[in-house]
Amino acid sequence: MAGTADGKTAGRRPKEIGAAWALMLAAGAANVAVWVLGSFVVEPTGLDDLTATSGVGGAARQLALSGGVLIVVLAGWLAVGVKMRAGRGWARTVLGVTGAASLLFAATDLGMDGLWPDTWSVLATIPDLLTAAAAVPLYLPAARAHFPGRSCRA
């Protein structure tokens, strides 16, 4: 199959769509890693804080709820990603808005930590930065042909 100037090969998705998908998967994995590290590893752990305020049972319930919500959000994230790969323009818009919101969250989180945030605060923004990065390839010129409809016109 011959490649074209727009980065698309006949019958295949543009490489920008593959890059966005890879960044989405990385953002999801980073979210899980940050949740696990924040809950059980980085001092003071979420488990320690919750146990101190709610007891062992309350902490277990709260972490289970938090983990469950994370799973639901990530399932939605992946579902939107699948629709993006299928060329749905609304999914591209959702990912663009999510990416912009993630940048705002990262900026405000870091801004609340003072002029020199600690290492954990910086590392905890990685999922937000990956989420924002996932939206960028979707708006490059070569990716526009993958999303037919109004949103692709110049």
Descriptive notes:
The structure is a single chain. The protein has 154 residues and is mainly alpha-helical. It has six helices and no strands. Helix 1 (15-41) runs antiparallel to helix 2 (46-85), helix 1 runs antiparallel to helix 5 (126-135) and helix 2 (46-85) packs antiparallel against helix 3 (89-112). The two termini are 28 Å apart. The relative contact order is 0.16.
Uncertain residue ranges: 1-9
Average pLDDT over all residues:
87
Report the radius of gyration as a whole number of Å. 19 Å
Question: What fraction strand?
Answer: under 5%
The sequence of SSEs as H and E is HHHHHH
Briefly note the structural class of the backbone: mainly alpha
**Main beta sheet, described?**
none
Task: State the main characteristics.
154 residues, mainly alpha, elongated, disordered N terminus
Brief characterization of the structure:
The chain is built from six helices and no strands.
Topology:
Elements: H1 15-41, H2 46-85, H3 89-112, H4 119-123, H5 126-135, H6 141-144
Helix pairs in contact: 1-2, 1-5, 2-3, 3-5
